Structure formats: structure tokens, C-alpha cells
Amino acid sequence: MICRITKSFRFDAAHRLPEVPADHKCGRLHGHTYVVKLGLEGELDPLMGWVQDYGEVSAAFAPLYEQLDHHNLNEI
């Protein structure tokens, strides 16, 4: 049976929009809280009864999280 799991991750980061008019507030450096929703689909493991261990999903996302959280997205 094909199943889908999702896991959400939140991170905070700064950015600016360099192409807006000079007096536009988004042209200045500012921050947001972002949400990444990661979805996986696959066959259920017949022994474990799940698609993937959520701990393994978190571990796989960790390197990207470290690159994004509390960084300037314009520099990435």
C-alpha cells in the first residue's frame, strides 16, 4: 500500500528584495519565519508499518536547516 507522510520544519531567516523601488520597505533587510513541509510517499515497510522513521527525516533535513536558519537568504 502506498502511503504519504509529511513533516514540517520552521526556520527564521532574513532577506531583502533588491529590485523594488528604493523607498519600498522590503528593499531593506528584514526577516520572516518560514515553514518547509516535507512529504514522502512510498510503500509501507511490512515489518515496521511505516514509510520512513520521522527521526531519519529530521536527520536528512538537518544540513539544509543549518544553511537556512538565521541566515541571509540573499547570500545563499
Write the H/E string, N to C.
Answer: EEH
Catalogue the unreliable spans: none
Termini separation: 39 Å
Find the CATH topology: Tetrahydropterin Synthase, Chain A
Strands in their spatial order, largest beta sheet: 1-2
Instruction: Name the beta content range.
Output: 35-45%
Number of strands: 2
Our count of helices gives: 1
CA-atom Rg in angstroms: 18 Å
Largest sheet: 2 strands, antiparallel
What does the model show?
- This protein is of the alpha+beta class.
- The protein has one domain: Tetrahydropterin Synthase, Chain A, CATH 3.30.479.
- The chain contains one helix and two strands.
- It has one helix at 54-68, and strands at residues 2-15, 30-43.
- It has a two-stranded antiparallel sheet with strand order 1-2.
- The mean pLDDT is 96.
